[in-house]
């Protein structure tokens, strides 16, 4: 007697690969990823991790028939789109929590292609970028810029601002302030000499004495942030789309002078603190447009 084994194919409507832009590698461990219909936060579904390191969903409300069909006909005759919210948190507190909305099914098969700034900027993101929380451990091989942001118009913390650093080799690196206005921006040391990791090249300044200048800018437009049902974190896309704020390098009550960026000096193996002179935080004026 021969047993007949049936092959059962089930389509996965949403798969996401999360990426650490600093270390340039996938984040595969200790992430909690959930999704729910935008109009029903009580119907949360937890993602499972695939062999390739992506986080995927099954049994999303409203998409069961599509899953069982194997995803046939998506490109030719896509079914009715449904809106879902995705939430991501890190059990190790290395990365900031994020939330975003997505319309399913996607108009293509494969992993979700997030449209977002990358670090450094590239045409095709390698995955969905997560940015460092202030509690992340930073290896000595990377530079770190820390700070607390204050909205000069309200005197309150500037939450969920987009912070970016432009290096002299024309690369841009990103960070996001948390709900208390605190941020950590991690980046490789700009333009390290060929002797890094070994003996410095003869005639060069020793590595521990080297410094670099970066330009710090902040995107802050709180009125443009959009909330999502089921989470208190604004939409990731609206955070990344905020227009540039003005930065005060000196006391805003005295000089009132502000600029679009702030030059900072990075010293090897020392955290750089971004602040307005005479204050513990960095004062910014939100974008008016």
What does it look like?
This protein has two helices and 19 strands. The chain is mainly beta and 289 residues long. The chain has two domains: 116 residues; 144 residues, Immunoglobulin-like. Strands 11, 14, 16, 18 and 19 form a five-stranded mixed sheet that branches. The relative contact order is 0.15. About 4% of the residues have low confidence.
Measured as a percent range, the helix fraction is: under 10%
Round the mean pLDDT to the nearest integer and report it. Answer: 85
Based on secondary structure, the structural category is mainly beta
Inertia-based shape: globular
Tell me how many strands there are: 19
Largest sheet, strands/sense/barrel: 5 strands, mixed
Distance between the termini: 75 Å
CATH fold type of the largest domain? Immunoglobulin-like
Q: What is the H/E order? A: EEEEEEEHEEEEEEEEHEEEE
Low-confidence stretches: 4-8, 198-203
What oligomerization state is this entry in? single chain
Binned strand content = 25-35%
Number of domains: 2
In DSSP terms, counting alpha (H) and pi (I) runs of 4 or more, how many helices? 2
Rounded radius of gyration (Å): 22 Å
Indicate the CATH architecture of the largest domain.
Answer: Sandwich
CATH top-level class of the largest domain: Mainly Beta
List the SSEs and their pairings:
Blueprint: E1 14-16, E2 18-20, E3 25-26, E4 31-37, E5 45-46, E6 48-49, E7 55-57, H1 64-68, E8 82-90, E9 98-104, E10 128-129, E11 142-151, E12 162-166, E13 172-176, E14 182-188, E15 211-219, H2 236-240, E16 246-247, E17 262-267, E18 272-274, E19 282-285
Parallel strand pairs: 2-10, 11-18, 11-19
Antiparallel strand pairs: 1-7, 2-3, 4-5, 4-8, 6-7, 8-9, 11-14, 12-13, 12-15, 15-17, 16-19
């Amino acid at each position: 007697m021969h047993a007949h084994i049936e092959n059962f194919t089930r389509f996965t409507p949403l798969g996401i690969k999360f990426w650490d832009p600093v270390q340039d590698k996938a984040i595969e461990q200790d992430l909690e990823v959930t999704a729910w219909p935008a109009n029903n936060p009580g119907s949360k579904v937890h993602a499972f991790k695939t062999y390739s390191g992506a986080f995927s969903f099954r049994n999303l409300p409203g998409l069961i028939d599509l899953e069982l069909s194997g995803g046939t006909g998506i490109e030719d005759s896509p079914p009715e789109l449904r809106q879902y919210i995705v939430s991501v948190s890190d059990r190790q507190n290395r990365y900031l929590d994020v939330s975003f909305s997505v319309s399913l099914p996607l108009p293509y098969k494969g992993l979700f292609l997030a449209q977002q700034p990358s670090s450094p900027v590239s045409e095709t993101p390698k995955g969905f970028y997560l940015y460092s929380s202030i509690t992340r451990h930073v290896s000595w091989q990377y530079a770190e810029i820390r700070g607390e942001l204050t909205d000069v118009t309200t005197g309150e913390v500037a939450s969920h601002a987009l912070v970016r650093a432009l290096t002299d080799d024309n690369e841009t690196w990103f960070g996001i302030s948390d709900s208390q206005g605190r941020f950590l921006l991690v980046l490789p040391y700009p333009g390290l000499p060929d002797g890094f990791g070994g003996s410095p090249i003869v005639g060069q300044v020793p590595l521990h004495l080297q410094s670099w200048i970066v330009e710090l800018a902040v995107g802050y437009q709180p009125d443009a942030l959009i909330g999502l049902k089921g989470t208190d974190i604004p939409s990731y896309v609206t955070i990344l789309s905020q227009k540039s704020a003005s930065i005060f390098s000196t006391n805003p009550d005295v000089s009132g002078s502000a600029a679009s960026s702030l030059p900072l000096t990075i010293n090897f193996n020392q955290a750089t603190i971004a602040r307005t002179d005479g204050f513990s935080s960095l004062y910014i004026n939100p974008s008016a447009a």
